[in-house]
Amino acid sequence: QQxxxxxxxxxxVQKGGISIINCAYENTAFDYFPWYQQFPGxxxxxxxxxxxxxxxxxxxxxxxxxxxxxxxxxxxxxDSQPGDSATYFCAASIQGGKLIFGQGTELSVKP
Amino acid sequence: xxxxxxxxRYLIKTRGQQVTLSCxxxxxxxxxxxxxxTPGQGxxxxxxxxxxxxxxxxxxPGRFSGRQFSNSRSEMNVSTLELxxxxxxxxxxxxxGGPGANVLTFGAGSRLTVL
Lengths: 111, 115
Known about the structure:
By secondary structure, chain A is mainly beta.
């Protein structure tokens, strides 16, 4: 019940295309859903986050869509750029800072 | 504003040895969490410290321990190292209290190789 399932494991997108990564969870006590971006040799960096009382949040080219009834949330990267090539992790947490991470998606954006 | 600083960045140990990793959080951050990252298991929570007290603990054996000092700096220790302990160990800090409590800022990690 503590798991967060992420798909796909890897994703190749053409420059200018839309990248979509999906996550699903079981524990309805989760109250915070961040997405992290990690480049090789670096730690994960917070990209965007959402709470379950909101169905969508947009920051620049990055959008989280949240479906509370389906217990799913997704990251959409519009106009994907080669600089977006990285590993993306969804996560979920309950108050206290403990994050449960998905397995990660390796995104490659081809020029 | 300086980020989360982890030292050392890379280290090599042999089985049976112990290792201590250090983490300096962002100034003003009072919570420090540790995560282990491996290709097979992904990112897994080790423990969280707040005001020098362990507030939360993941499912790791007792060989993994940590502590936090009065200046919020934290250390984690792994004793009797096993090959499977080879991983990137990530420290993250956050403010505490209110909606910001869950915004974690990660360091670059300490990459441990056990031979």
